[in-house]
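Students often ask why inverse folding is considered easier than folding. One informal answer: many sequences map to the same fold, so there is more than one right answer. In these notes we will look at a single instance of the problem. The structure comes first.
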């Protein structure tokens, strides 16, 4: 696959997502709330989760309207989680996506409300009056809710906060990262797949692919936290080490963590090969992008 073709697909997909978010995230929300929401979600970030939704939807010839809504919904959930995670009561970070975090820019109360509003808006976006069948709306909402809640992102963050300064073995660390980061990435793939007709074999293969890249993403994040500076990362480098948080680097060592990320990428490729789907090129290249990124 020509890298230029992939880059063109990424640019077109990102433009579609950004244009839709511009429409669906209301500037008119009262008392500056809309401004804070738009600051948190527009014009920044890798948009990996939306890209996974759209790539999976294309692999199964899925409905474009539903896939675009799912892509925006998962990005809204991601943005809300970052807004809350960065607050002083949690990770207490001041830099996100190369700019001041939401609570630094707008205050803690507004950041909390903007996060709440983005979480609710995600499910509003998934349930339009027309254009997406009610059964598909329900399925997409269920996938996103489960990935966001106690058994997914929120549960992983709870484990993360409770693990500061405590030794974790590799299995415990993997479970924390699976919940905190991996499950939402996996759900992004499955939400895209749900927009089309997919066999049980393909669904399981895409689920396995999503699980592998979800964990790989966090392993690479742990590596970058100790190998890159804040300017490159767009967030505070060395924060996990300074906060005495367990990471894949602290548990396995740097070289073993790098090897594990490559192993997970290979698992993702094998899962795609087992799916029986005719064209998984975008998903394959996104798996490479997850592991080879520098921020």
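Output (designed amino acids):
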């Amino acid at each position: 696959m020509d890298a230029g073709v992939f880059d063109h697909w990424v640019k077109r997909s990102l433009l579609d997502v950004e244009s839709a978010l511009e429409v669906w995230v209301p500037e008119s929300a009262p008392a500056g709330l809309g401004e804070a929401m738009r600051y948190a979600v527009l014009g920044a970030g890798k948009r990996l989760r939306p890209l996974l939704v759209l790539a999976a939807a294309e692999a199964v010839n899925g409905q474009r309207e539903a896939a675009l809504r799912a892509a925006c919904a998962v990005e809204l959930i991601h943005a809300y989680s970052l807004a809350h995670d960065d607050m002083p009561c949690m990770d207490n970070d001041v830099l996100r996506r190369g700019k001041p975090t939401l609570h630094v820019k707008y205050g803690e109360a507004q950041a909390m409300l903007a996060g709440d509003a983005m979480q609710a808006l995600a499910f509003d976006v998934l349930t339009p009056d027309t254009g997406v069948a009610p059964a598909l709306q329900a399925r997409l909402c269920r996938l996103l809710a489960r990935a966001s809640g106690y058994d997914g992102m929120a549960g992983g963050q709870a484990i993360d906060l409770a693990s500061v300064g405590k030794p974790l073995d590799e299995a415990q660390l993997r479970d924390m990262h699976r919940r905190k980061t991996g499950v939402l990435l996996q759900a992004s793939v499955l939400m895209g797949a749900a927009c089309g007709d997919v066999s049980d074999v393909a669904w399981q293969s895409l689920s396995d692919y999503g699980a592998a890249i979800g964990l790989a993403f966090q392993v690479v994040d742990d590596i970058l936290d100790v190998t890159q500076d804040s300017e490159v990362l767009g967030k505070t480098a060395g924060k996990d080490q300074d906060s005495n948080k367990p990471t894949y680097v602290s548990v396995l060592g740097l070289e073993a963590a790098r090897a594990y990320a490559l192993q997970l990428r290979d698992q993702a490729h094998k899962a795609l090969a087992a799916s029986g789907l005719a064209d998984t090129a975008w998903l394959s290249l996104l798996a490479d992008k997850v592991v080879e990124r520098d921020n």
